[in-house]
Amino acid sequence: MSYLDLHREVAQDIDAEIETALERLGPLANTTRDSVAKLLDHRKLRHPLSVLPLLAHAIETGNPRPAIPLSAVHLLWWTSACYLDDLADANGTTLCGELTENETLLASVITGNAMPIQILLELDLPASTRSALITEILNGWIVSVDGQIDDMRGGARDASRTSVIETYRSKSGAPFGMITAMAAIFSGAPEEKIELWREFGFLFGILWQIFNDQEDILSGRHEDLLNGTVTYLLASVIEDASPGSREHILSLCAAAGRSHHARSELAGLLRTSIALDRYRTEIEALRTEAYRILDELGGDETYLRALRHLVDHASGMLLAPELSPAVVSGAA
Description:
The chain has a single domain, classed as Farnesyl Diphosphate Synthase (Orthogonal Bundle), CATH 1.10.600. The chain is built from 14 helices and no strands. Helix 6 runs antiparallel to helix 7. The protein is globular and about 65 Å long.
C-alpha cells in the first residue's frame, strides 16, 4: 500500500466528515456555511496530505479509519492557513472566486479554528483526550503564526541555513507536528511516543516546505523571490558566497520584487550545480533523520512503508542544474 492508495480508499469519507461539519454550521449561520463551502471548493489542496494522521494512527493501531475526523481537521486547518498565507502575499488581490477578500478572510477563520474544534467536540472521547487534542490545535496555530511572522520579518542579509530551518520548523513543522501528535493521542499512545510523533511531524514539515520551495521555482512564477521570502536554498547560496558575490546576490534580492531581470538572474544562481549538489545532500540528511524516527517508533509495517513512501515524496530532489556555475559580477 502507498499513501496514494490509502487516500483513494478514504477520500470520500473525509469529504463526508467535512460535509457533516458544514451542516453543523447551518443552524447557527447559513451565510457562514455557504462562504466556508465556497472557500473549500476554491482552495482544493494539490497534495493528499490528509492521509498523514491516518498513517500515524494506523502505525500505532493497525487501523487508519478511526482517525478520519483528524484528517478532516488537518484539511480544514491547511485550507485556512494556505489562504491566509496567500492573503499576506497578495497585495489586495481577490483570491477566492465569488467571495470578497473580507468575506474569505472571515470564512478562513471559521474553517481553520471553529470547525476543527466542533469536529472534536462531537467525538465520543474522554474529557482529558478531547482537551489534549484541542490544546494541540491551539498551540499549532500559535507556533505556526509565530514562524510565519518571523518569515515575513526576515531579511536576506541576516539569513543563514540555521535561521531558515528554525523558521521552517515553526511555520511549516508545527502544523504537521500538531496533527501527528493528535493522531498519537487519539490512538492512546504513551507520552514518549506522542513526543516522538510530534518531532517526526516537525521534521516532515521542514521537508515539505523545501518541497514547496522547489515547486515554486519549477513553476517559473518565482513567488518567493517576488515576495522577498528567504528560502533555505537562497540562504544556502548567500551563506556559501564569497564576500563580493554575497553583496551582488543581496542586491538582486533587494531588486527581485520589482525587476524581472533580477529575479531571473537570482533564479539562475539558485540552480547551479554547486548549489544543488549541496542542497541534495542536505535534503538527504533530513530524510535519513525522518527514517530514523520512524524506525524508533516501530509499529504496523504496512503503514510504516506507506509513510516512508510519503517521506520519499516530500524529500524528492525536483530541481536540476540550469546553468553552469555563474561568475557573479563584483565577486572577490
